[in-house]
Amino acid sequence: MEALNIKQLRKTYSAGVEALKGVDLKVEQGEFFALLGPNGAGKSTLIGILTGLVNKTSGKVQVFDEDLDVSPERVKAQLGVMTQELNFNIFESCWNTVNFQAGYYGIDWKEASRRTEQLLRDLELWDKAKQPVRNLSGGMKRRLMLARALVHDPRVLILDEPTAGLDIELRRSLWVYLQKRNEAGLTIILTTHYLEEAEALCNRVAIIDQGTILRDAPTRDLLGQLKKQTFVLELVEKSEMPGDDEQVQYRIVDPLTIEADVAHGITMNEVFERLKQAEVKVQSMRPKANRLEELFIDLVGKKGKGLSA
Amino acid sequence: MNAYRLYISWLTLTRKEVMRVLRIWTQTLLPPAITMGIYFVVFGSFLGGQIKEIEGYPYIQFILPGLVMMTCITNSFSNVASSFFSAKFMRHIEEMLVSPMPDWVMVTGFVAGGVVRGVICGLIVALVGLFFTHIPIYNFLIIAFYLLASASLFSLAGLLNALMARKFDDISIVPTFVLTPLTYFAGTFYSIQMLPETWKKISLANPIFYMVDGFRYGFLGVHDASLMVGVVLLGGLNLVGLALSMHMVKKGVGLRS
Ligand SMILES: Nc1ncnc2c1ncn2[C@@H]1O[C@H](COP(=O)(O)OP(=O)(O)O)[C@@H](O)[C@H]1O
Ligand SMILES: [Mg+2]
Fold first, then answer.
1. Contact yes or no for B252 and A55 at CB 8 A
2. CATH number, domain A2-223
3. For chain B, domain boundaries
4. Which residues contact A243 (CB under 8 A, 6 or more apart)?
5. Partner of B123 at 20 to 30 A CA spacing, among A87, A208, A219, B203?
């Protein structure tokens, strides 16, 4: 069954910016789906239209066969959303923030309180329940947004850059929680500009740039499509290059710097084996661009802006 | 949402709005008590003795209903205007926008908060007034109708103002340039019978005049203008305000880009 079906979705902001240029997208029930793209690609606009925060210009949106134009309230009842920007009343307590949200969905006080407690405990916010939101750290605020998005037990969870600005540890713990919920049957759609995030969590990825979906494929296929990755090697001393072959090609940038294009599937050990045989001494090595950039270059033959690994 | 869920949804918002009024009582409930206490001292006790009775009532009794009404409408207005605008400003209005709460629940929930604040403030002023004078009650139902209908009308006005406002300053434009002049020229401090013809006619074009006049009628049993006009005006303006705010929320004016 389709959790989400978007057809020819367009959005032109009043300033004339064309943020979405006819997006088609389908997400199956139970999927963990990533919308991947650089800043300004139109991700938040798309999420905003789904969740009733942005008016669409044209197109069709269906959530579990309910049409956004026909029954917006039924669409909204099935979605839980964590927006990119914080949107709290910072003077309200954490408990009220989550509990009131349940109330807005029509969940009675007793059930709302039960769920609020459960979520605050699961997301390690229980000891902050009585604190006003403004006393929370950045990571806690994100988790509180998640609790608020889940309190009405949505069928689809939508996360707009949920881990932007979080440190590695917090990011990982959020990933673990989301994976658990997805395994329990929740359909999750997240936007991100980290390829690593999509890779770690999602079984399918759509790449969006300038309001257009460039590619929509299983994550494994997309990564497999990364034909090569380029590394920059700083050498200890001027050396003769090993000969190019099918898997690795070399370019001399300056006497002490070379670039190596490494085919997908080749291990670093194999690369260094070649270098060792040619008696090239490597001082240090770094990837030239991150993998998302490489993916973009592969897809559109140009560099994406605002991407990060 | 079924009726029960709608009720929960409405009650959640309304309760939240009322809790807000009570929590920040030093900003919401205390100021009118102090301001109107001063009015009673100055106009009632100091000046009142020098002013002859109006329509057979001591000056302080004559102005009391108008002061209650004035307090009620300004507080209803500013409650919804500031609560709704800060929800917009801090973006937590999105909590409601993403939920299946229908537009009318959101509108009436905020209005209910404004009405509660307006009525409580009105009651506070009346209670303070009791220290200075006796308050006659001619017809309680009339008093209740005028108070509630005026509170809801100005709550709606506050909502409309907040929907259109882009910055905090915008929500003080209406109180400063519209509400204050209209309330002071609404016959709170005088009977329009005392005015020259031209001013009398101008007063009749002021909707707040009918609210004060009808409200005062509930206490004293005397009025200057047609009560029918007042009732129709209040009812009609309430409907217009409701329709307009529903329309604006539905279209997302000031809420959705
Ligand atoms: N409220 C708005 N008014 C006008 N333009 C906007 C608005 N919100 C976003 N945009 C523009 O729409 C484009 C897509 O933005 P957005 O959806 O936020 O991208 P992303 O979330 O992928 O970074 C950008 O060019 C952005 O400047
Ligand atoms: Mg965004």
1. yes
2. 3.40.50.300
3. 3-251
4. none
5. B203
| Ligand 2 (single-atom ion) residues, CB below 5 Å | A 43-44, 84
Q: What is the helix (H) or strand (E) element at residue B80, kind and residue range?
A: helix B59-89
Closest CA to A32 of A224, A205, A154, A222: A205
- If DSSP codes are grouped into helix, strand and coil, which group holds residue A226? coil
3-state secondary structure of A162: coil
- In single-letter form, the type of residue at position A136 comes to L
Alpha-carbon gap, residue A228 to A271, rounded angstroms: 13
pLDDT, one tens digit per residue, over A161-177 is: 999 888 888 899 999 99
Which of B92, B98, B102 minimises the CB distance to A53? Answer: B98
> What's the whole-model pTM score?
0.89
Q: Mark yes or no for CB contact B8/A108 under 8 Å.
A: yes
Distance CA A124, CA A126 (A): 6
Q: Is B257 in the pocket of ligand 1 (CB under 6 A)?
A: yes
Q: What are the strands of the beta sheet with A248-254, ordered from one edge?
A: A248-254, A257-263, A228-235, A282-287
Domain boundaries, chain A: 2-223, 226-300
CB B255 within 8 Å of CB B88: yes
Query: CB distance from A283 to chain B under 8 Å?
Result: no
Residue A238 CB coordination number (10 Å): 10
Q: Which amino acid is at A45?
A: T
Task: For domain A226-300, give the fold.
Answer: Alpha-Beta Plaits (3.30.70)
H or E segment to which residue A10 belongs: strand A2-12
User: Atom 26 (ligand 1): residue with closest C-alpha?
Assistant: A40
Please give the single-letter amino acid code of residue A236.
V
Mean pLDDT of chain A: 91
The angle at the Cα of B70, spanning B69 to B73, to the nearest 5 degrees, equals: 80
User: Hey, which of A9, A10, A13, A57 would you mutate to test ligand 1's pocket, going by the most ligand atoms within 8 Å of its Cβ?
Assistant: A13
Chain B residue numbers with beta carbons less than 8 Å from the beta carbon of A52 are 97-98, 256
Strand pairing report for A32-36 and A204-209 = parallel
